[in-house]
Amino acid sequence: MAGNRPMAIWTLIIFATVASMVMAESMAGARGRSAKVWVWIAAIVGPLSPLVLYALGNRSIPAP
Length: 64
Description:
Elements: H1 5-30, H2 35-45, H3 48-56
């Protein structure tokens, strides 16, 4: 049973990364940010990207 533990951990990491990519895409779109860029960021940093998006908030559009 101990031999399967590393496989279970990698499965959990992959699942969390894919879930964070989906969450980052929807959060970025709702906050006026590039969904494509944030999906790639989520692929690299994993579950931290939705937290960063939440902290950044909505994108403010500067006045002309």
